[in-house]
Amino acid sequence: MIKVLIVDDQAMVRQGFGALLSAQDDIVVVGDAEDGEAGVAKARELGPDVVLMDVRMPRMDGLEATRRLLGRRPAGDESGPRVLILTTFDLDDYVYEALRSGASGFLLKDAPAADLVNAVRVVAAGEGLLAPTVTRRLIAEFAARPHTDRPRPTSLNALTPRETEVLRLIARGRSNQEITEELVVAEQTVKTHIGRILAKLGLRDRAQAVVFAYECGLVAVGE
Questions:
Q1: How far apart are CA 43 and CA 215, in angstroms?
Q2: CA dihedral of 48, 52, 53, 54, whole degrees rounded to 10
Q3: In angstroms, rounded to a whole number, what is the distance separating the alpha carbons of residues 28 and 73?
Q4: What is residue 219's three-state secondary structure?
Q5: Which residue segments constitute the domains of the chain, with CATH numbers given?
Q6: Structure confidence by residue, pLDDT tens digits, 2-20
């Protein structure tokens, strides 16, 4: 069973999402919280697999709560919940920083119910989830930055040429199926490559891989 904690300052949102997720055979809602501070406390108490985290809340917002939950783990540490950020606006200023803080993905609050259920399952399985509009926002963030020559991270040296190629494709937003077709390999082979990439670089999921690839200059905006 996938254990979910819902953190949102609107009671109706918590109740609605809770009812929807509780109706699924493989998901159980272990609790909810009305702000980030209470969410952090309950996450540590209840040990959820996935935290649905609103962005804008009183006392402590979703960004700071995500940092508190995930920001102090050493690289490669897979302990703790995965955070799925819920936001009303796809151009929210928190997008980039929340991903850097360890969030596994973003979902718009007005997304269809089936998308929410699927997002919880995807994130719980260890995959990152970025809506196309959010991915465009992330890339725009990098495009707006001054171009500087950054040293190549030594951790990239651990990747094989094929793994480096797969990482580039992930950063360009390719799905596993699209990578399979482009490289003409089996989908299981792609999954194996991705697992090794994440392990070698100490990353949690695809969302973190996208940030890493752009930050280290492996992929340039506009490629």
A1: 30
A2: -150
A3: 26
A4: coil
A5: 2-140 (3.40.50.2300), 154-215 (1.10.10.10)
A6: 999 999 999 999 999 999 9
